[in-house]
Amino acid sequence: MGVAGLTVAIDVGGTFTDLVALTGDGSILLHKEFNTGGDRQAAVLRGMAALIADLGLAWSDVGLVVHGTTIATNAVLTGQGAPVALLATQGLTDALALRRGRRAHLWNNHTVQPPALVPRWRRFGVAERVLADGTLLQPVAPAAVAQMLAAAAADGVTAVAVCFMHSYLNPANELETRRLVQQFCTDRKLDWHVSVSAELAPEMGYYERTSTTVLDAYVGPVVRPYLERLWAGLQAQGFRGTLNIMQASGGSAPVAAAAARPILTLNSGPAGGAACGAYLATLLGYDEAVTFDMGGTSCDVALIKDGAPLVAESSAIAGYHLQLPVLDVVSIGAGGGSIVHADRAGLLRVGPESAGADPGPACYGKGGTRPTVTDVNLHLGLLSPEWFFGGQLRLDQAAATAALTAVAAQIGSDPLQVAHAAYQLVNAAMASAVREVSIFRGHDPRRMPLVVGGGAGALHACEVARMLEMPLVVVPPVSSNFSALGLLVSDVRYDAVRALRPLPLEHMDPEQAVRVYAEMQSEGQESLSRAGFRPEQQSFSPLIDLRYRGQFQTITVPYPTATVGAATEQELQARFHAAHTRLFRFAATGDPIEVVAQRLVSRGRLPVPEWRGRLQVTRSARPPGRGQAQVALYPGGPVPSVPAAELRGVQAGPLLATDPFWTAWIPADYCGGRDRFGNLLAVPAADRPWLQQRVG
Amino acid sequence: MAHMLDAVAREMGIVMERSTSSRYFQVRDMSTSLFDAAGRLIGQAEYIPLMSFALRPQLHAVQQMFAGDVHPGDVFLASDVYYGGNQALDVAVFAPVFVDGCLAFWTAGKGHVSDLGGNVPGSYNMKAQEVWQENVRLPPLRVARGGAPCHDVWTMILANSRTPDFLNRDLQAMMAACARGDDRLQAMAQRYGLAAMRQSVDDLVKLTAAAMQAEIAAMRPGVYESEAELSHDGIGDDRTYAVRLRLTVTPAGHIAFDFTGTSPQTRGFTNSPLSTTISTLLCALFMCVSSDIPHNDGCLEPVVVVVPEGCFLNPRPPAASQTGNFIANNVVGEAVLKALAESATARVTAGWCKALGSTLTCSNPRSGRLEVDTAFFNNHGGSGATRGYDGMDHLGILVLGGGTYSNDYERFEVQNPYRLLEHLCWTDSGGAGRWRGGLGTTARFLVEADDFIMAVHGDNSHGAHGVCGGQAAPPNRYMFSTPGGDLPAAAIDRYSLPRNTVVCNWNGGGGGYGAPLDRDAAAVVRDAREGVVSLQAAAEVYGLVVDPADWSAAPTPRRTAMNRTGRGAHP
What we know:
The structure holds two protein chains of two kinds.
Chain A: E1 6-12, E2 16-22, E3 28-34, H1 40-55, E4 62-69, H2 71-77, E5 84-89, H3 95-98, E6 123-126, E7 129-130, E8 136-138, H4 142-154, E9 159-163, H5 172-188, E10 193-196, H6 197-200, H7 206-237, E11 242-246, E12 252-254, H8 255-260, H9 268-283, E13 288-294, E14 299-305, E15 308-309, E16 311-312, E17 315-317, E18 320-322, E19 326-327, E20 329-332, E21 338-342, E22 348-354, H10 373-379, H11 388-391, H12 397-410, H13 415-437, E23 449-453, H14 461-467, E24 472-475, H15 482-488, E25 492-504, H16 510-530, E26 538-548, E27 555-558, H17 566-584, E28 593-604, E29 615-617, E30 627-630, E31 641-645, E32 651-652, E33 655-658, E34 663-666, E35 670-674, E36 680-684, H18 688-695
Parallel strand pairs in A: 1-4, 3-29, 4-11, 5-6, 5-9, 9-10, 13-23, 23-24, 31-33
Antiparallel strand pairs in A: 1-2, 2-3, 7-8, 11-12, 13-14, 14-15, 14-20, 16-19, 17-18, 21-22, 24-36, 25-28, 26-27, 26-28, 30-31, 32-35, 33-34, 35-36
Chain B: H1 2-19, E1 30-36, E2 41-45, H2 49-65, E3 75-78, E4 90-99, E5 102-112, E6 141-145, E7 148-149, H3 151-159, H4 164-192, H5 194-217, E8 222-230, E9 241-249, E10 255-258, H6 274-286, E11 303-306, H7 324-343, E12 356-363, E13 370-373, H8 409-415, E14 418-425, E15 441-447, E16 452-458, E17 477-482, E18 485-488, E19 492-497, E20 502-507, H9 521-530, H10 535-540, E21 544-547, E22 552-555, H11 557-565
Parallel strand pairs in B: 10-11
Antiparallel strand pairs in B: 1-2, 1-5, 3-4, 3-6, 4-5, 6-7, 8-9, 9-10, 12-13, 12-16, 14-15, 15-20, 16-19, 17-18, 17-20, 21-22
Helix pairs in contact in B: 1-4, 2-6, 4-5, 6-7
């Protein structure tokens, strides 16, 4: 591990904070903590204190904390980011709103584009210019910038985004502007977040870079104070190790790097879930899978291909373009806390609004009066009032029924019918998200297992798998802390890029290129060493973006480090032609090749936990429940009494398989059993012989 | 299955886009489709909707010409407008897909190429009166046989372009896309079996036809007439040409578009090939039905189109037609949306920005090459408002539908010796209405080359029309600010301009929907604060006096009176 001692992964969702600890001897300990009020880091500290106490250790024994947070994502989804001023090249200030003239749904005119994150009156045009070849034509005028900043200050902004034309070739004007902003802030004693496009995404594409820079500025004043408070809180407890923050790329970064580039924390929670899904699928011997992580507020779905989550070619969050490598995760508003309601037309809907942890679902008895998916599952008998959340929270059945009755009254129905319809709606929404990551991307889910995470996921998984004819449902024992485990198995990762003025390959000086890689690598080494990674745990992948002269899109290929001089050029040519042929079935072998950018991915490898079934939960959780449950999944029909217990061998449905933090629903036409890793496997009844072998 | 087929077409599109070196493919001025053996459209990626629907008649021309002579490894090419094409510069490539030795499917890729010969670079010959003056004609040709390129045909095609390198790469990219489609379809056939795939395709087409019919049955039945006008034919200013449309919607869910009475074909290159006319009207129709309906042969079943031969929407050879693409968007689009406003009032949009196209050519002092490009950012005006929704800004002309990109500013400057000085929202360009038309833009770029030639072709006379009491948007305009003085551009002409000319464009907005005085006051104030509606227009058109000191608003007597009577509250 990077640093000696205990490693703790913490995933903060909308309702719960999930923790997973990996001890020096390779065993894994799970813990779950309720989120409270607005103070997210309090739950983190409480949860860690519980874990440490359970293990009989001290705060100083914790070497590494990996943290996934939805704080940036939520700021964007709810429109609660900072007021931002955009300083852009004069005459081109509207690029952010014009978004290159496209929309997501070609034929649907009954939609609106998401509003630009910076309103037009906070977009300032700076008289400055760098030309297409990187020549500085006009420097920035300090007095003019100061005037704009004064106007922005008067308007109450707390962040500034700077994006100028061709800054990826020559960042001088952007850097000078940042200096002016910092000077202004010092003079006025302001604490503004400043985002500069040439540092965040130094690649061609003015709109794409602007949007990325604005997103960073928008979430900066929300993310940075949170991380600072968290860091201070950990330090105050006696923590002396490293704090890393998960990034949407699927690797984590030290807290200081994340605070400096808060945009990297966007979508970090779902990235953890996808990483966990990939880890588990590989463990089970599948190179393709769909993962499905149902938390309190959302359900995140991702496709695993060749043992790794798919990476999105370009990505957007809530319709805002993000020019960074991001795992391809589809999120839908169907979590345990998603609210069940009737719309104006009298149709039943689920989400996207969530009850969160406070007040939470009606059955939490914390004052919530609107029914949620958790209330639905309770009313249907899929959840037991006594066993929820490790037995630490007794659910209030009457409150759930009352909340469902209120919605039923609005649409002239009864609570059982509403619960049944809502359960079907949630399953259908999940199935369509699975379709989106698989069939819509050209992959057939009918050969893939569905790997399920989240406390509530296993109550829905078999129903979803049946709709899509997926052959196998896998509920890992860490299901309830799915994303958190994903954080534990992800590398620490830094992405560095140096854009070049497109250069013919034959003019590339390999010595110079190697110098650039060395420079990027020493930055990466320094960061990794600071994070406690020993040299043998560090790895570096030098990559190069190439294209045929005249092409626009590039292909990234590994840079050959073993060759020198002309051999390098030949090797690069061969690699590029081969990659082009693989992707497009042709190579223009006679055509000149251009070099567009150099990249370096630095990774710090955490040891992948060896799964020996040594999984524990903190002592505060009680053992899983046993008994009979009254499951009312079929309206009008009989209410079957089904056994609920920990599984022993292969058992046929209907039954509820229980675990401290989760319950799985095995329908009548399914059977289930636990494999040697402790995973619950559920398959259609016809596949019982296959399951028998796996459960053994 | 529909999703999987569309996914195959989308993947083909990605191959084409990523492997290309075309200025046009990079903004997705291209399209990919899949057909069954009978030539039925079964899946497509609509980057540019206009082109997508025009692939079908072209495939039929290929099938007709090579009936009984299609073999594994063949690739066919076609672009001629008298063989099903929509524009000669939109070149299509078709490849048969054989499963177990049996022709099962066709894959197709199509994209705009930069030059196919003719009198002028870029092949937009303003003065053309015959197709031979526009470009080399490419009727269906076999360009590969048994997997090997037909070098003679290939060489002949490249020899007829001023930009053979680009064209060569474009054709390779399209063939690569078809090859990818072949891979994917083969894999699907392996997994599901060809018989099952055929059955699925039949079901898909049937279900789609039923869904489309239900959508049309939900419209108000009746016979509706509308007109639109083309005020310039490229040859002289003295003539106007009328589109006359008679739309019939039946309660059973059939719809007929009859263009009888439309003016005869024009003298210049403003004729719209039949493919273009039909594609354009489909684009307008699909804007007014549920966006969930898949676009395959099924959705065309309830649609009947009558376009008399010899009118300017279905010209006879050898009429010229290079800018017919744009002309049809402007006049067919307008006529169809106007007629549908009475039949599909809740779904219809007001008019979209008209097309005023441009082709830019010069030799690039940096690269030493001839550059042919288009200012796509000037073909992205506002979309029309619809009931309940404002139009969208900078989205496109109707036949683009928001599927193509406008140029990336930086790439535009890297590729051309032009410097972009301005690209901004155009204040008051959205047609006023209870729901406002989308905004158009203003743009200026500086020319830093000595032999710059710009062709302008389209409409600068009419803005997008409003519906249900909504107002029209201002029209498009080009103007050249040359060192010697300002020069306004005509709707159709070709200009040789000196170094340091600044090309100025006003790209119109979309039309408004419903009475402006009914617009939500908060929306008007927000628009005023954003500066996209002027304070003057807020007061005079929307009846709100907005105070820029605190962004409060007071209704004018006219607005108060309107709101009291409630007139027009529900257009």
